[in-house]
Design brief:
There is one protein chain. With 404 residues, the protein is an all-alpha fold. The chain contains 22 helices and two strands. It has a two-stranded antiparallel sheet with strand order 1-2. Helix 7 packs parallel to helix 10.
Amino acid sequence: MVAICYGMDKIPKKLRPEALAAIMPFIKVGETIEALAESIIFAINLLKWDLQSDSSDIATDLENTMLCFWDPLVKTLKRRFDWRFDEKLYRDVAPRVNETSLRIYSSFLLGIGWNENLGPKYYSDPERMRAPIRMWLLAMADSSPGHCLIEVQECFWACFTAKSVEASVFVEMLVEESGGNERKVAKLSVSELKGNTREKKQETFNLQIRFNLILLLNTDKMHAAALDAGAISAITKAVLRLRRLGEECCTASSIVLFLNVAETILERGQTVRGITEAVEAGMLKVLGESTAFASCDCLQKKDIQQMSLLLKSFFVKHLVLDSVLDVIVSAMAEMSAETLAQLKKSPFAEGWGALRAATLERAVFKIMLENETREQGKFGTCDFCWRSTPSLNLKKCAGCKTTV
């Protein structure tokens, strides 16, 4: 059996289902722990190699073989691994775990999770989500075994994106496993979003991870914590990168998702610095290019309506802030001629036009106000926003536009 496991790369593809069928009974019989581990590694490597290939018949045979031994396989995994990732482990100051077990278990969960048939079946029991969640929290800790980090992160996101897993339930369990600490989860997510440890050859997967992080931060439970963790700037840069490399996961729907997160965070009182940094990081470029080049074929009707509404109202409430207005006007001036031409043909042209008109209106008003102020040389204090404002001759505050 060990010879078969370690010689898997020499086995012709057409014979791999038979080889897997020869290995799997050891799980049912209950051989030694080492034999069980080797069986699992072999099965998972077959899944990762062949289920992603063009050999659909071979992939189906491999799936069927796994399903024949499904119950004993799941029981073996529970007996072999689950006890090593119990609740007590994650309450310790310096958690430790067998690195071999971590690697084998995460490899299995990765192979199962990415498979469109086996993943939903495995995670049909929501309690099975706890293992990848706990391993991810452990792997993101300072005491994590570094060489297992990538495998653990991958199996975590494979669980999150499985068809049978609801994002809201997943996040609830994630927060619960972190001791009810949303801020911790948000901080870890934003940290991974800003820059992770994956190799360049995994660029496509890296982008998918970033898209999943935006999904996670967009859940209702994470909005407030995402604000404190500085998610808006990180999300802006991540979406720009997704768009720049043109991956399938970056459809117009991802832009609607981005707008939702950004608007929610801004509404919760993000600082002027945070808004300014987001615009400087490329938020307006995301808005402009997405509006110009988004295809309605990949959007549902509700998404189209939502995107139009967001464009009409997105920055209007924040344009009164001088620093924000300055960077927005600057960003609009730097847009390419191609983008501006495409904007006129876009189904979202009306919404973009409203945003642009509001920006120009506030910019012109600001210039006029500054000119009047220079001429008068007098200042007072607004009772509403406490900003420095011209004397009563101008009647309106430069900051909040309230009549004074």
